[in-house]
Amino acid sequence: MALISLNDVSLAFAGPPLLDHVTLQIEPGERVGLLGRNGAGKSTLLRVIEGSLAPDSGEVIRQPGLRVASL
Questions:
Q1: Which of 1, 10, 18, 63 could form a disulfide with 41 if both were Cys (CB 3.0 to 4.6 A apart)?
Q2: Residues 26-42: pLDDT tens digits?
């Protein structure tokens, strides 16, 4: 079972979408790196994953008891 699943997640802030139908699965033991230009949506994606920002559409599923931390 995946630790985190994003299914068809979209999010926009008064303009073109930062996240446009994103689908992502992170399995136990996996390490994921995010690369991209400034303003590409990296921090926004992390906020959606940790639950501090709700997507406009789509589904975010976290394994029960999962803790997500960021620096």
A1: 18
A2: 999 998 888 999 988 99
Torsion (CA) 12, 62, 25, 7 in degrees, nearest 10: -40
Task: Return the number of other C-beta atoms located less than 10 Å from residue 48's C-beta.
Answer: 23
Do 23 and 7 form a contact (C-beta atoms < 8 A)? Answer: yes
Residues 6+ apart with CB under 8 A from 63: 1, 2, 3, 4
Give this prediction's pTM: 0.88
Tens of pLDDT along 2-61? Answer: 999 999 999 999 989 999 999 999 999 998 888 999 988 999 999 999 999 999 999 999
